[in-house]
Amino acid sequence: MEIFRLKTLRIKDNDIFQKEIEFNLSQVSDSFSVNAPYLTLILGANGTGKSNLLKFIIDVFRLAYDKLNEIVSITYPNGKYYLEYQLGNSNYIILNTLGWEYANEPPKYLRDKKSEKGIRFFKDGKEIPDSKIKIPDSILALSIMLTDKYLFLRNPSNYSIYKYLGVRRDSNTAGTRSLIGKTIENVFAASERKEFIDSLSEMLSFLELENDFRISYSPKYKQHFFLPDLTLTKFENFFLDNKKYLPNRTTEPWSVSAFKQLKKTEPEIIPQLVELLKYLSGKLENLENSRAQYFEFNIFDIQPGFKKLFTLLPYLHGLNIISYPEITLKKSRYYGIGESSSGEYHFISTIVGLLATIKDNSIVLIDEPEISLHPNWQMKYIAFLNKVFKKYNSVHFVICSHSHFLVSDLKPENSTIISLKLDEEISATTIDANTYGWSAEEVLYSVFNVRSTRNSFLEYDLTKLVTLVNRNSKEYGEIKRIIEKISTLVLSESDPLKILKEKAEKYLEKNNA
User: Fold this and answer.
1) Same structural domain for residues 228 and 196?
2) Residue 366 belongs to what H/E stretch?
3) How far is CA 464 from CA 48, 404, 453, 500, in A?
4) Are strands 214-217 and 285-286 parallel, antiparallel or unpaired?
5) Of 47, 288, 345, 392, which has the fewest CB atoms closer than 10 Å, so is most exposed?
6) CA distances from 20 to 16, 44, 79, 95 (A)
7) Do residues 195 and 230 share a domain?
8) How many domains in the chain?
9) pLDDT digits 0-9 by tens, 41-95
């Protein structure tokens, strides 16, 4: 098995990173034998370019992907750059600037038209043609923010190794239904893999939920489709002679055009849908105190033969034969995922996507996973990744965060911590200390240069307050609550919390809140 590791990224004259900056993304003495992925944690306040850094990595590899596949590139990473990584036993470099390795010579920005803005590829120190470059097998991008900076492709085949696992359903909108649908599609795609089912169980355990993950649908046009004696002719006639079956409709159902397209492009699917509907007709259950019906299944308790039919359910939804799917979880009682906390809901959707799509020799980019997560979950987040993805030691995770709670579970043999700070320019510092097992107070003092003897829940509030103010949030009630909590503490004139409190109060005053 090959090993993938990001090693060094240098950027200069970029819209965000104007001054030359270097990110040492992994250790020189990386322990490849460790049963865990490699983790790079990048910590910094808002405005230090964390999200833009993740996007920059995506863009550089997209350019390499285009060259490798002889695709005309539309966009190019901004500024001068040098990206070094290891894949297998070889060292690769993608750059558009020569000379960074020589301290006494200024970098030379390559601009020749022949090489399209000067991009060059190197393997083990020697320049190679486009066709010889090797890149990671997949790039997975996770975020729960609608405002994430990740690339969103209308046509994913244009960059097939890249998978967007965020909450957006298009370039700038998100929807609860679409996110649930995407989560269920990922479950269906991976459900026949025992490893996926085991990891799904680990995820539920992490969230302190029972080992029960139910997916349900409601039937539509039940009297026409959910029949034990349904035939192919009856099925097709509903769409081809819809006025007979729906005499009160004045317009043609949109599902008719969907059926005609399916019959044209994938006619072999239609008989399979008929067999699935015959099977489901015997699985319908009544909702309590209602005539409405539904069918559901627990992903942990399904006959192997039925799993093969999962991929057909989206076709039924596309033909308006079944409703949008719902997910039901259990913690002493059953409840819909829509009733879960924001942290629980988004954790499930992103982690299921990652479990379903991860493969060896990949990059996993995670932007601010701590958002909406309870402090206890934040503190266990890194341990969860190490446990669930232990077989993927060829994978490199790059995690950007504000939260010091993530630091104490990082093991020195498979991790790097980078601290970003903004003075006049953004700077990056690699933290050399072994932080494994540190308390939150030790992390605040040694990594963030903040001394604290306060409890973890207050620390969580402080992190949240900084985030809300820096993002110009309109959650004024929450900001006031945290300020009131800080006001109960005895603070010296030089205490940083006093400055933070005053900054938050000025923010409220500025917004007339």
Assistant:
1) no
2) strand 362-367
3) 17, 12, 18, 12
4) unpaired
5) 288
6) 11, 18, 10, 14
7) no
8) 4
9) 999 888 899 999 999 999 999 999 999 998 888 778 888 899 999 999 999 999 9
One domain, residues 130 and 254: no
Identify whether residues 104 and 245 lie together within a single domain. Answer: no
CB distance 183 to 354 below 8 Å: no
Strand-pair category, 362-367 with 138-143 = parallel
Structure tokens at 511: 């917004």
Looking at the fold, whether 313 and 402 belong to one and the same domain comes out as: no
Q: What is the pLDDT of residue 409?
A: 78
Q: How many residues does the chain have?
A: 513
104-110 — which CB contacts under 8 Å span 24+ positions?
107/12, 107/20, 107/80, 109/13, 109/80
Tokens of 65: 């992907």
Q: pTM of the prediction?
A: 0.80
Predicted local confidence at residue 434, as pLDDT? 64
Residue 108 Ramachandran class (φ > 0 left, ψ -120 to 50 alpha, else beta): beta
- With a cut of 50, list the residues of the chain below it in pLDDT: 102-103, 112-115, 445, 451, 453
Q: Is 56 exposed, middle or buried (0-12, 13-18, 19+ CB in 10 A)?
A: buried
pLDDT at 440: 57
Termini Cα distance of the chain: 57
